[in-house]
């Protein structure tokens, strides 16, 4: 489908976009109307032989790996609808998403943490979904619940054996995330720990790497997106979710703002998004997009 037709789709939704434009007149860096859906990752790269027009029919997104599950499904849906469109996503953490957006190396940046005041001033901001950061352990532990203070002691290595929590006699292997990942920043903010305080046994990158480490190491503990933890449990990965401060790690508790470690997921752009990025953003506001978010175990923004 030609890009003009896709742009026409955008203008048929002006009743939604008008809200964004009016708010933009009030504040320099506006939050657009909450998105009820997701984005899209489809790691299909252009090879040779494409026309110059086809090469422009793409949306490039970089940033938070937390958003990959939604990005993939949304990208596949859009590419079926628009055969010339390619939605490309490169993960690497929220820090990469912000840096690439600032230097205009992408169409949209994916960010899985709250934005700073400077970032809000620089970017157009699109809230997409709510997510929780879950505490997971290897399924070999018989621990069901921890407190935030327990987490502080574990990650400082003040407690090193699950017996201290009336669990099995097993050393605790601390899995931490590497710098540049928003999940680390959200975890530090909640626990009020400093990076230098954490004594890690294993350092992993994205959520899937943390899950793989915890699944493979008896007695290990880590923290990841609730959405990805639930997906891993569904395919029988040997991990389990831990209650935190007496609250069960469920999507309903994330939605009701009861889960202690909760965050908003964003897409950002520097200036007005490109035409095809706007097509993607319109899709994210649709009922179909909202359903994709739910199926990926995230909470749409209502």
List descriptors.
302 residues, alpha/beta, D-Maltodextrin-Binding Protein, domain 2, 2 domains, ten-stranded mixed beta sheet, two-stranded parallel ribbon, 13 helices, 12 strands, 38% helix, elongated, disordered N terminus, signal, Phosphate_ABC_transporter, Phosphate ABC transporter substrate-binding protein, PBP_domain
Give your account of this protein's structure.
With 302 residues, the protein is of the alpha/beta class. It has 2 domains: 3-129 and 263-300, 3-Layer(aba) Sandwich (D-Maltodextrin-Binding Protein, domain 2), CATH 3.40.190; 132-255, D-Maltodextrin-Binding Protein, domain 2 (3-Layer(aba) Sandwich). It is 38% helix and 21% strand. It contains 13 helices and 12 strands. The chain has helices at residues 3-11, 14-26, 52-55, 68-81, 94-102, 117-122, 148-155, 182-191, 207-216, 226-234, 251-255, 275-284, 287-295; strands at residues 58-63, 86-91, 108-111, 124-138, 145-146, 173-177, 202-204, 220-225, 239-241, 243-244, 262-269, 299-300. The strands form 2 sheets. Strands 1, 2, 3, 4, 6, 7, 8, 9, 11 and 12 form a 10-stranded mixed sheet that branches. A two-stranded parallel ribbon has the order 5-10. Strand 6 (173-177), helix 8 (182-191) and strand 7 (202-204) form a beta-alpha-beta unit. Helix 1 (3-11) packs across helix 12. It is elongated. The protein starts with a helix and ends with a strand. The relative contact order is 0.21. It comes from Aliikangiella coralliicola. InterPro entries: PBP_domain, Phosphate_ABC_transporter. This is Phosphate ABC transporter substrate-binding protein. Residues 52-288 form the PBP domain. Keywords: Signal.
């Amino acid at each position: 489908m030609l890009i003009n037709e896709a742009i026409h789709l955008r203008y048929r939704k002006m009743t939604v976009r008008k809200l964004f434009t009016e708010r933009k007149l009030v504040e320099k860096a506006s939050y657009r109307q909450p998105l009820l859906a997701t984005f899209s990752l489809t790691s299909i790269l252009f090879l040779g032989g494409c026309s110059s027009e086809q090469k422009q029919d793409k949306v490039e997104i970089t940033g938070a790996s937390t958003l990959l599950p939604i990005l993939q499904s949304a990208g596949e849906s859009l590419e079926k609808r628009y055969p010339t469109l390619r939605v490309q996503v490169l993960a690497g953490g929220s820090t990469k998403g912000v840096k690439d957006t600032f230097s205009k190396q992408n169409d949209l940046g994916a960010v899985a943490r709250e934005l700073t005041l400077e970032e809000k001033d620089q970017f157009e901001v699109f809230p997409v979904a709510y997510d929780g950061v879950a505490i997971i352990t290897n399924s070999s532990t018989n621990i069901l619940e921890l407190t935030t203070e327990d987490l502080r002691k574990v990650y400082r290595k003040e407690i090193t054996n699950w017996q201290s929590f009336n669990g099995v006699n097993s050393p605790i292997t601390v899995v931490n995330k590497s710098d540049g990942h928003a999940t680390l920043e959200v975890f530090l903010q909640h626990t009020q720990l400093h990076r230098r305080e954490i004594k890690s046994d294993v350092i992993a990158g994205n959520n899937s790497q943390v899950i793989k480490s915890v699944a493979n190491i008896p007695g290990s503990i880590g923290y990841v997106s609730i959405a990805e933890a639930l997906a891993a449990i569904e395919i029988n990965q040997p991990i389990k979710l831990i209650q935190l401060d007496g609250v069960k790690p469920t999507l309903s508790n994330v939605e009701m703002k009861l889960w202690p470690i909760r965050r908003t997921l964003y897409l950002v752009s520097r200036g007005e998004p490109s035409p095809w990025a706007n097509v993607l953003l319109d899709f994210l506001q649709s009922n179909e997009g909202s359903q994709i978010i739910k199926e990926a175990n995230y909470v749409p923004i209502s």
